[in-house]
Design goal:
The complex is a heterodimer of chains A (122) and B (107). Chain A is an all-beta fold and 122 residues long. Chain A has no helices and ten strands. Chain A is 0% helix and 46% strand. The chains are: A mainly beta (122), B mainly beta (107).
Chain lengths: 122, 107
């Protein structure tokens, strides 16, 4: 079955850019929407945004000015960049598969990657 | 953004109990709601989507109901592996948002 794995630096300095990659295995990345979600320690979940395999994106307005997502179908990967990070961006970052429909109402997440902790600190 | 409020935030129960978790939306979201289970140190797992549709492979003791602004997740007979934190997610309005979570603990 489809599995997702996040990768990237676990420590990022304040004001720098957080960069993560999600590798999809066991199936094709094509024809699905792929999302990033984050969870600060002991807190709830926040949807960051999603990307389609065409490169079309939707971002959470609260983060839109700092987020860039991209996709590399040849590598079955998609990526997240979050600029100008602060301590408030410290969280476990998950990648997840959404639906195949443009309509966000069908964009529940399954499966998820195991998550990767990113700490913002100097 | 639509706010989702789960109640209770903490729930203590015993194996074999029937438990219900409620998720209330700040405005109507039709049936565009999903439920997830998260165990410590693990990623959330999809249990239910479209308010009441059981995800493939999820035990039938889990069920969901509701529409509009009030939704429930019911576990008919708690098993040891069900002790976890549960989150609801609304998909009706952009951006999609999650409830604050309900932690289900062993009594």
């Amino acid at each position: 079955q489809v599995q997702l794995q996040e990768s990237g630096p676990g420590l990022v300095k304040p004001s720098e850019t957080l960069s993560l990659t999600c590798t999809v295995s066991g199936g094709s990345i094509s024809s699905y929407y792929w999302s990033w979600i984050r969870q600060p320690a002991g807190k709830g979940l926040e949807w960051i945004g999603r990307i389609y395999t065409s490169g079309s994106t939707n971002y959470n307005p609260s983060l839109k000015s700092r987020v860039t997502m991209s996709v590399d179908t040849s590598k079955n990967q998609f990526s997240l960049k979050l600029s100008s990070v602060t301590a408030a961006d410290t969280a476990v970052y998950y990648c997840a598969r959404g639906g195949q429909d443009y309509d966000l109402r069908y964009n529940w997440f399954d499966p998820w990657g195991q998550g990767t902790l990113v700490t913002v600190s100097s | 953004d639509i706010q989702l409020t789960q109640s209770p935030s903490f729930l203590s129960a015993s194996v074999g109990d029937r438990v219900t978790i409620t998720c209330r939306a700040s405005q109507g979201i039709s049936s565009y709601l999903a439920w997830y289970q998260q165990k410590p140190g693990k990623a959330p797992k999809l249990l239910i989507y479209a308010a009441s549709t059981l995800q493939s492979g999820v035990p039938s003791r889990f069920s969901g109901s509701g529409s509009g602004t009030e939704f429930t997740l019911t576990i008919s007979s708690l098993q040891p592996e069900d002790f976890a934190t549960y989150y609801c997610q609304q998909l009706n309005s952009y951006p999609q948002t999650f409830g604050q979570g309900t932690k289900l603990e062993i009594k």
